[in-house]
Amino acid sequence: MEDRLQMADGLVPQKIVSVHLQDCTLKALEDQASDQQAQTLQLNPKPSTETQPESEVMARVGREDPKVPGAEPTLGDGGASGSEPAGDRDREVGSVEHCPLHLSSCHECLELENSTIESVKFASAENIPDLPYDHNGSLEDVAGDTRLEREGRRVNVTGKAPNILFYVGSAPQESLGRFLEIRSVLADCVDADSYTLYRLSRESALRDPWSDNCLLLVVATWEAIPEDLAQKFMAYLSQGGKVLGLCSSFVFAGFQVLRKSVLEETVQNLVFSKADQTQVKLSILSSGYIYEEGPGERRSLGKLQGHLENEDKDRLIVQVPFGEHGGEAVLCQAHLELPPSSAAVRAPEDFDLLKSSNIRRYEVLREILTTLGLNCDIKQVPALTPLYLLPVAEEIWDPLRQWLGKHADPKGVIKSSKLSLKFLSSYTSEMEITPSVLPVVTDVEAFSSENFNLDIYRQNLQTKRLGKVILFAEVAPTTMNLLDGLMFEIPQEMGLIAIAVRQTQGKGRGANAWLSPLGCALSTLLISIPLRSQLGQRIPFVQHLMSLAVVEAVRSIPEYQDINLRVKWPNDIYYSDLMKLGGVLVNSTLLGETFYILIGCGFNVSNSNPTICINDLITEYNKQHKAELKPLRTDSLIARTVTVLEKLIDTFQDKGPNGVLPLYYKYWIHSGQRVRLGGLEGPEVWIVGLDDSGFLQVEEKDGKVVTVHPDGNSFDMLRNLILPKQQ
Fold first, then answer.
1. Which parts of 386-486 are beta strand (E)?
2. 141: Cα separation from own chain's centroid
């Protein structure tokens, strides 16, 4: 009931507690509710649309959008006093008709979303603590200043409640699916903590004063908009409202929608002009309709425009100002709301084109939403969390504790040049966590995570030494730094690995940052390699082995062998030869006769946006082959990758490069690929393979095979290859 509940006289609830009532008490409440309902019916025998009882309005909102906070069954038909008694279908055995708390007018209830309730706290009936109620002001304060900032909500410059409303038609099942689909993509674009996304039904649109508290109205239905509803939408626009039309029949200001069946559900090239006049070119799924201006005076349009890259330059996106109060709409006939994995996308080549443009699709959506007044700033960096020390096998635990006792200072701290790890048995929220000082909890029993299952990791880890001791964090600065103070001291048979669900300072090659959204497998593995060994003499191969291990970890699963995951030289994981979905970063230090190597790896498992992930490939494979492969998990894939890596290292140490190159070439994307040396104007060569040190070998036009190195400056390692200087 958060954001929806106000008691009489402006009282604000501080606790909502479940209690068990005896049958006699329930009967008394039922009689009381029936008496009150009868009195209300006598006072309001024929409520009109204008004087409709407030509780009826709120009951209707609750029925039509089960996601609205507070829309519980008890506030449905039977819970509202004044008009519609509950039918038998709304009752369960033993249920009663509840007497609703007093609600002010619907308009005021919507205003409450921006003012009254800061939080609703639940407590156990057996042990009810005193819960502090943290509010930023009284109702009187709010009435005088609707710009009051609530915790977790943006201060709207309009002073309106932060509502985005979706009108998706009247067909019950189809409109619900359409609403969830569009709400999902908009939630990825805007700050989720700043806005509330609601579905707007036709009845609510006609009766409720939604326009006073709506920052954006999204119209996304091919149903013809009824005349009375169209008038409401136009009235909203004339008051300065903002409208986004997504593949909708809604038009105004002389525009008309024309069908062009040859374009329907086909992938087309769109040229989109942004507000600063720069252009974005991308592949989109067309609705099959275009916009044309009707006869008469031509309107002055906004700067956002989008047309197909065809001979007719068909209009698919137009920005149309309206009225004297700043109202405007952006109308769109490109399916910007549909992901490439949508059922509407049938052909594999269409999926590839749309996935390749997925980042630009979000760029266009954010540009439109920002122009319409919404905040699409990057979401707040998540707060750091404590680390957990998790041994995979019981026999490691005692030696590990003994080692910590010898190497940590009296306060349990191990320092390195980059950070300090403070080992302790338990963690409390009062303890400070900073990027330079991180607590490490050693109580395994206290560990739990929704995003990492230790048992699943254990089941999938089949190694002799690697990955046996985990430093785990929900949110860490970067896993590459976590092992810095331990890598030279901890016994190598303990197999240290750092795993994080998210990173705030993820690192890529050189000065590049690595984005670390939820659903990305993030880890740094510690390995040691003797200098005088096959791999010790060819350390550049380590990054190749790691990227190969990720691909093989997926494609070695029975029935997953055709998932089109590949390696790109020198350190990337790719979908086909189209899109990057992972990368490897290797830092090595030679001490005496041993290389101490940190292998950082991140690859997308379940985070579809803004690029692509492994589970996208599985979903697309299922669609194309009528298969039922299950999505994969980050914890199992990290463990499988470490397992494969250990086998590859052992094979390399035994047989050298030739022991692993056949598998590497099986999965790499470069066979017969042409590149230019030194830049776009350089000589053209053909990639033929790797040399004995792991660098590329290319064939020149005269048939000569030479080794090439990256120039050290390029973002894409294949963009500016150079011949090494002859000694």
1. 387-391, 413-415, 420-424, 437-441, 469-476
2. 36
575 pairs with which residues across the strands? 565, 579
Question: pLDDT tens-digit profile of 677-686?
Answer: 877 778 888 9
Judge if pTM exceeds 0.85: no
Q: Is the dihedral of CA 251, 256, 258, 263 positive or negative?
A: negative
Q: Contact 155/36 with Cβ under 8 angstroms?
A: no
- pLDDT the model gives residue 34: 60
Pairing state between β 327-332 and 163-167:
unpaired
The pLDDT of 150-165, averaged and rounded, is 51
Determine the 3-state secondary structure of 111 from DSSP: helix
* Token pair for 641: 């990758």
CA distance 304 to 386: 46
Share of the chain above pLDDT 70, in %: 73
- The whole-number pLDDT of residue 288 equals 92
Question: Which residue in the block uniquely carries the two structure tokens 């008309």?
Answer: 256
Residue-wise burial string across 117-133, b where 16 or more C-beta atoms lie within 10 A, e elsewhere: bbebeeeeeeeeeeeee
Give the alpha-carbon dihedral of 633, 639, 641, 643, to 10 degrees. Answer: -150
Q: What is the pLDDT of residue 478?
A: 87
